[in-house]
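S., here's the first fold you wanted:
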Amino acid sequence: MKTHKVVLFYPPYAGKPLSPPAGLLALAAPLLEAGFQPALVDGSIAADFADAVVRETAGALCLGISLLTGPMIRTALEVARRVRRAHPDLPIIFGGWHPSLVPAQTLQSDLVDVVVRGQGELTLLEIVERLRDGKNLDGVLGTSQKPGGRVVHHPERPVENVNNLPAPAYHLADVDAYQQACGARRLGYPSSVGCPYACNYCTDMVFYKRRFNAYRAERVVSEVTELVERYRLDEVVFLDSNFPVDIHRAVEIARGFVASKVRFRWRFQASTDFLSRMSDEEVSLLAESGVVHMGFGTESASQEVLALMNKKHQRLNEMFETARKSAQAGIKVTFNLIFGYPGETEADRLETLRIMSDVARQYANVTFSPNIFTPYPGLPIWPQLKELGVREPQSLEEWADLPLGKNVLPWLQGEELRRLQRMLEFFLWNDYLRNGGSHLPWLGDRARLALGTPLRWRLRNGRFGYPWELWVARTAARLVTRRSLLTGQELSHTMEDVC
């Protein structure tokens, strides 16, 4: 006899886990309210996650798997295959970013019965209610299915105001286990979803259709401070795509945290145009409320490339203003950089590195995370990419081989790629010396000056031959080539990881 159990699985990803998977906790909350029994398995902390999923799905109503593009897909398919062998009649549902962006292709797999597209809380609830009652799933809004082998996309489910949804089921997360895995007592908290902009390289605008859907400020203050006290959190990472879209709301949240007298660190990501619109006093209020890091998708300092990216809302002066205001408030920031975007020239790259070096020279609180443009599914520019020779993956398995930063760009190969790698090494080595060479305490100020002066000359003039400074760098230090935009933490130390 079937129980009311619903199993939700989040495949592991590279690196330490950030925090409990907020998506699964959000999906679990309406199920609990309706009397179901969600069982969560997070592959990032469960050593035997495949066995656990197979064990938990015995007698369950269904298995739901949430995943992103990249290596998570391979693990999701492996686990689904084991569950299919153990429980042949159990419905397997895929959801999350990747299946939502390419639902028909996802359903090509024999291991996937249903795709939940977009906001999934109410869609999944309707699915499990029908399964419990022995009804078919025909007509469930927000789903793609394949009855009789024919793919059917049911209409979109109307977007639900997130304030009408229950708080994620945080009590289902083992905060102690995540602290042991990641070394920090923290929680990811999505106070909003969506971003109003339509950047051509970003899947967010495809997924959320440029809607900014946010909790009210008073709800954020109440929930976050209660979570901090209940779980003795040191840090909360806001998972919003662009936290300060509503500047008044952002200020009210910071003011509420200060008034609560509950002390904790928090971090978020944003676009420089919103942060630069805030007054110096408002940014200082962010710091007073506990903000220690902000991540910004600056991507390029070339106005031509920004136009190609459809980032006309971003201006160079706002990058400097963001750095200035955050430095004055004592908040660290990470600027993300994207290289290899279609239409970008070497002159554009040099302009970006020159301007970013100038930002770094003026403001010591800024670090950088360079990446190679990754063509993810659903991007509006895929027709252009195909014309330029980029091959779009044709199956889940092929998408599994496309982690963030993997270079599949035909126009960035051979000598041009090696030259870009060298340019980035010079840039990162210069930034490392600017920050005092923290891993080289024996390197004095005069030595740093001696090494830094020719580096800056190279970046200004685009001269990268005979790289004796890099020979020194490669033997003396591990350069941070990629950082988390959310936390600013180091993610990789080799140029191969970037390029």
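And the second, which I think is the more interesting of the pair:
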Amino acid sequence: MRMRWCAQVGQQRGRYIVVDSLPPVQSAKVTTDPDVLSAYREDASHVVGSPDGLVRPESAEEAAAFLAEAREKGIPVTPCGLRSSTTGAGLAPRGWALSTERMTGVESIDTARRVAVVRAGTVLRDFKDEVEAAGLFYPPDPTSERECAIGGTVACDASGARSFRYGATHRWIRALEVALPDGSVRWYRRPVIGKDAAGYVALRDPVRLFCGSEGTLGVVTQVEVDLLVKPEAFSAGLAFFDDVPAALSFVGAARLPQAPVTPRCLELLDRSALRIMADQKSGVAIPEEAGAAVFFEEEHPAGAEMGVMESWWVLLSGSPGALADDTVIAADHNQQDALRRLRHAVPATLNEEGRGFHGAGGKKISTDWAVPFEALAPFMVEVDGWLTEAGIQRVARYGHVGDGHPHYNLIVKDEEEAARAAVVVDRMCRRACDLGGTVTAEHGIGKVKRDYAKYRFAPWQVSAMKAVKAIFDPTGMMAPGNIWDEPVG
């Protein structure tokens, strides 16, 4: 029986509202139609896949049956969701693409325990809307939440602007239903005890093995998550500064434990990003002289907006280089949504700009590294110098600087410029790891960043991950090319 939260339909039983069972579905088949497959050759990255077939199961059991068949025939399988990945993780280089797009719907929302179960192909924003209608809140908020499937967010351990306060996806996962290459379907659950001294700490929680595994172990088919009570209200703002160093200094002040504010996100937008936002003609006033901005949000009780904004004003007015009088405040839902859409227009515009150079071998290159916040400002100075030396002119810097995680978006016009940019990006990733950071803080490794994984992991860590993969996927059929370049198994 299918269960979901629904205010108008169904009969309430205990903590759930139950709707009628859905009729049985016809088993999916392997699709080899070239016109259909063409849609599964591309995602939000510049990688191009080449699947030989497509399967779109409607249940975990059907997904497991396809995996067992593929294993018997020696066919590689690459799981995918809604193909919003920027790393090519869901693109099959060969074999079958297994899409979860037909496994959709919220199975249940337990309002007393604040727990929900959702099928993996469900659009993240749709799930969050149903949760919020029940008075609850699911914190992970990747920028692509209207285009991504929740199973994909588990596969790459996605995060977003509000991860500054709430952390990445893995923090909110209680249990996973997974279809495995041997044809079985299993639930893996996070331990619920507060103390446990048994064995290696890193292996006590099987759920975390699948978060960030990018399809290399199996296919996530259902997800059980923790929820919070929906915040009564929040306010958002866009504060402007003379330059990026002044903006980062303000972020540092807002992060301090003794700061008068409690942000849930702190996002940088440099001059290039601000010009993109100004071109949207949104009505939001962006001062021409601004060299950077910080987008921030803070939760608060209903009616407390003025007091919260006063605290931000105090912090801004004492920050060198702040254009405090130009600060834009959004206290109601429409204004907040407008600001978020404006911020999200930056990567969307850059994606389109990069696609315009594909014919000449150009593209958009986006970094995903992160470093400890204390190292961020001097590291960005280093990086800017490297890009200038390499002659990379079209650069936009924006993103999650509260977490030490800016995105550098480089628009390169041809193959030669792309090669120069690639050298700088490699240097960024190596140096980020030297500083105690990572090569990917949000999007996963996939196929795009696998050359940088060697900077993040020692050889013994790679060996350990491959050993885990060999347990779940001994033939190495799952997601070839993700995380590692060479075959595993």
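Why I say that: The longest strand covers residues 405-414. Confidence is low (pLDDT under 50) at residues 1-27.

Talk tomorrow,
H.
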